[in-house]
Amino acid sequence: MNWRAVGLKFCKVAGLPILEPFVRLVAGEDPKEQLKEIAKYILVPALAIAVFLGFWGLASKHIVANSVSLPGPVKTFSEGGKLISAHFDQKRLDAEARREKKIEAVQLMQKSAAAEKKAQTVSGQQKEMLLANAAVLKKRAVAAANYRPSSAPSFIDQIFNSLKTVAFGFIIATLIAVPLGVLCGMSPWFNAAITPLIQVFKPVSPLAWLPLAMLVILSLSSSGEPWLPIAFLTSAITVCLCSLWPTLVNTTLGVASVDQDYMNVAKVLRLSWSQQLYKIILPASLPLMFAGMRISLGVGWMVLIAADMLAQNPGLGKFVWDEYQNNSQVAIARIAFSVIVIVIGLIGLFLDRIMICLRNLVSFGNPQTA
Amino acid sequence: MMNVAVSDEARPKTGVRAPAPPALISMKQVCKGYGSGESRVEVLENINLNLRQGEFLAVVGFSGSGKSTLTKMLAGLETPDSGTLEMEGQPIIGPSQERGIVFQNYSLLPWLTVRGNISLSVDRVFQHWSKADRRAHVEKFIEMVGLTHAVHRRPHELSGGMRQRVSLARTLAMKPKVLLLDEPLSALDALTRSVLQEEILKIWEEERQTCLLITNDVDEAILLADRIVPLNAGPNASLGPAFAVQLDRPRNKTALNDSPQFKGLRNAVTNYLVAVRQKSRDEQQMASEQPPIQLPDLKPRSMRLPSKAILNAPI
Fold first, then answer.
1. Is A66 helix (H, G, I), strand (E, B) or coil?
2. Would you say A175 and A328 are in contact if contact means Cβ atoms under 8 Å apart?
3. By its UniProt entry, which InterPro entries does this protein fall under (chain A) (predicted)?
């Protein structure tokens, strides 16, 4: 396979048909045709985005409430830039403080060692005093070495915290939904038993789950200190409860609708139950399973913002909420930045792409681009 | 059971037959239907068939006459409603590795490569062999169907003909006692089909395995088989009288095209099938007492073509 075929295959599997005309152009195919493709998939969308930005700018000039106006695109982006640079400033300051503390710790350690050495030479009350002094100095050195800056999480920290929360919730949901879905798909009786429960719980709003999730977490953690922050767990469990259903339903469908021909092959070969499961049923239902997981991740990401707001988990939702509380021009601009550009746009898109890519990797000969 | 009178001209002049070898698979008075109550449809009725050791038998019938049901029963994927179905004196109660089946739609697992698909069955059937032996066995059959250059490809990267070769190799590699070919070539284009027919013929003449071919192509049946059994049109399909194919082997497709014996046999089988279907249709017509439907004399309101938007609408 030459690099052109590899490139085209990559575009197909990664779900990035946008790159295809470029690969073909570089490979020396008819440039006219490729330019047309580029115009269609890149110039036209870019134009649409430009028009949208234009409308946004226009709207920001006219929408004013309580003497606060809707931030325009330019202001939003400059605020976004400030938020990111604030993060790096904060990190630099924290690193400096940590370095100073480290130097201090070394100095304290030296002082403590000197005091101990001196204690060897003297005796009586003076020796005891020196030893006590050394012990205090050592303690202070350890505290300085373990110093953690107590600055509030910056915007970027919050993004990562959100991603961690959604990943945690999503992984737990997948670990529950996939085995359950396989069982449902393989046994019509089990499916019949569990379908009413799925139907009832599926349409429940994420915010209705939140108090319940919090209750469960609190009751579980009443016996001792939980190994993760309660707010984090509450958000993650809410995400989990909401992203359970698409994966569960799709896995059930995928397993139940394995091509009868494949099952005939399994029957003729007289594969054992576990061989049937691992060699035929699971590989055959992977594409639908991943399609379900893609929807799950999308739902989870949407729910996360609301869950973070209510649970006060230091993620993007809390960021939006906090900024909304500090009702000022700058704050609104930050909300616009975080919500429109980062959250819904790029991260959601990125997560979606990852899932498409995974799905395409497991669905041979039948990749989906959208 | 349907009794069909077929003119004597249509019957072939069968010569003196050599003493028949023992039957490997025998079907006696086998019936099969689907559904229950009002919606029950009898697909096959009173099927009597003996598949003899070492012979190539072809069952020819129209589509929808129950050919696939017949193979599924022989493979053990379906059980007959009544009658006996035995292989070497033992009733067939489920699928077995002794009866290899080649499906019409290949049934290759799309996530496995050519080698992976064949290995799956070889690893299962010859579990007690060493890894190297199994590997060599797989390679042998890949080579037999001429796919050595494509071992690493997945089914979606292969043409229809190549896929059916993989499917054939997968089944042959199981070393079954009986090979059941369920319309193996009917999804292929005419050129590929004729190439694969010759290949099946070549492989069969090397191994002389007991083989049952289900097909809707009379020429294919005559080219490959020793005996042709027509399946009368369903529902309530039954088997017609057997036609012996006494053409010399090895057979050559091009040479056969000019052979008067080939032409006579083709006409006989085709005429028989057409006559039986016509008869069954006539009977159905007689049975249903509904008057023929009078179509209303309608004229389109406008002769304009549908607008472009409709023509371009995604399906």
1. coil
2. no
3. MetI-like (IPR000515), MetI-like_sf (IPR035906)
- Contacts by residues B129-138 (CB-CB < 8 Å, ≥ 24 positions apart): B137/B173, B138/B173
Chain B residue whose CA is closest to A361 = B111
The CATH superfamily of B21-98+177-283 is P-loop containing nucleotide triphosphate hydrolases (3.40.50.300)
Test B107 with A364 for CB contact under 8 angstroms. Answer: no
Chain B residues with CB-CB distance to A268 below 8 A: 75, 77, 95-97, 99-101
Query: Do A350 and A257 lie in a common domain?
Result: yes
- Scanning the structure block, which residue is given the tokens 């191994």? B207
Chain A closest-CA separation from residue B63 CA (Å): 19
**Total domains present in chain A:** 3
B77 and A264 in contact by Cβ < 8 A?
yes
Judged by CB atoms closer than 8 Å, whether chains meet at A279 and B120 is answered as yes
Q: Residue A90's domain spans which residues?
A: 73-145
Residue B206: φ, ψ to 5°? -75, -45
A366 touches chain B (CB under 8 A): yes
Q: CB distance from A218 to chain B under 8 Å?
A: no
The pLDDT mean for chain B works out to 82
Supply the pLDDT for residue A224. 67
User: Do A107 and A227 belong together in one domain?
Assistant: no
Whether residues A128 and A166 fall in one domain: no
Q: Which residues of chain B form CATH 3.40.50.300? A: 21-98+177-283
Q: Which residue has the higher pLDDT, B231 or B311?
A: B231
Based on the fold, state whether residues A33 and A104 are members of the same structural domain: no
Which pLDDT does position A226 carry in this prediction? 66
Please answer yes or no on whether B120 and A284 come within 8 Å at the CB atom. no
Average pLDDT over residues B9-24: 56
Nearest to A259 by CA among A238, A293, A235, A284: A284
Shortest CA distance from B170: residue in chain A: A265
| Distance from the Cα of residue A225 to its chain's centroid | 25
Which pLDDT value is given to residue A328?
64
The answer as to whether A138 is a domain residue is yes
Q: What is the pLDDT of residue B10?
A: 42
Q: Report CA Rg, chain B.
A: 22
Which of B99, B103, B156 is opposite residue A364, by nearest beta carbon? B156
Average pLDDT over residues B124-144: 91
In tens, the pLDDT along B84-119 reads 888 888 888 888 888 889 988 888 998 999 999 999
| Residue A68 placed within a domain | no
pLDDT along chain A (370 residues), means of 10: 78 77 81 84 90 87 70 77 84 89 88 84 82 86 82 81 92 95 92 91 83 81 73 88 92 91 88 90 91 92 86 82 71 61 75 86 66
For residues A217 and A109, what is the distance between their CA atoms, to the nearest angstrom?
A: 42
The CATH number linked to A329 is 1.10.3720.10
